[in-house]
Amino acid sequence: MIRQAQDAVRRYLPRRGGGKGLALLGVLLLAGWAASGIYRVEPDEQGVVMRFGAFRATTGPGLNYHLPWPIETVTTPRVTRINRVDIGFRSAVDSTAAVRPTPSRDVLEESMMLTGDENIIDIDFAVFWRIRDAGEFLFNTRNPEPTVKSAAESMMREVIGRTPIQPALTEARAQIEQAVRLGTQAIMDQYKAGVEITQVQMQKVDPPPSVVDAFRDVQRAQADRERARNEAESYRNDIIPRARGEAERLTQEAQGQRESQIARARGEAQRFVSVLSAYQAAQDVTLRRMYLETMEEILRRNPKIVVDDRLSGIVPLLNLDGARAAAAASTQSRPATPPAPPAVRPQVPTGGGR
Known about the structure:
Elements: H1 2-12, H2 18-35, E1 38-41, E2 47-51, E3 54-59, E4 62-65, E5 72-75, E6 83-87, E7 89-90, E8 105-106, H3 108-111, E9 112-114, E10 120-131, H4 134-139, H5 144-161, H6 165-169, H7 173-191, E11 195-206, H8 212-281, H9 283-300, H10 320-333
Antiparallel strand pairs: 1-4, 2-3, 2-5, 6-10, 7-8, 9-10, 10-11
Helix pairs in contact: 5-7, 8-9
């Protein structure tokens, strides 16, 4: 076999200068061996370079070079692919697909958990993860997917163990998913597994099948209690502001009346002080003015008939009906200026009276 190989090489080499031909062949073989270290990393991959089987470096996308085999080898795992781990159920969907699966079989030993208020709950959830560091992923953990599953299940049991059953079934699902994702990521970082937990998705959260009917009755009763409470809150929110507004209105009216009475009393007192000051300054004039004003007010409201005392033998004619009508009109209207006094009707003197 060696002779046959030598004969085959000689056939392709020139007949003269066989030593140079062997050297050239050796150079070509060496160049080809050296060029075999060139490799390409796709955009969704990372290159893991191993020297004699031991991890040496991680390379990014593009053309790269490593020492040819058997000195160094390279592995290019896909790091952008989203992987999924199902906990509490098994599905026929590919575990690497980032879609919501349809549970085909429950695994009760994984899904049955104890809540913070000592109730049992059945939870099915899925964990989505991807490779963050290919070197750590390949060399720091022997079974990365079971490790992710165990860490996520442990963290879910811890979070559910601190959460009452009612929030876990209703409004606290998003908080539970976030807490489980962060806790699982912390565990994987502690292991240096090179894994990133992208999402935790709760598929089913129900009480155990044996008590689901009774639990639904309890939920309906709680819904009725919440509805009655909301109605009472609505009534309170309606009646209390109305009562407060009415109380504020009465307070403002009383305050306004108080201010009005105080202002009126102060005005009356100021007027009295002004009159007193004027009286003290000129008593005679003030007394005369007060007397005239008082008599003007009295006489303005009473009808009057003026008769000249120099006339004699006058028979007075007193028109009582007209006086009553004038007095009633004066009382109702009370004009600002006093009415003119009635005209004097001259009387024809008869006899000696007046």
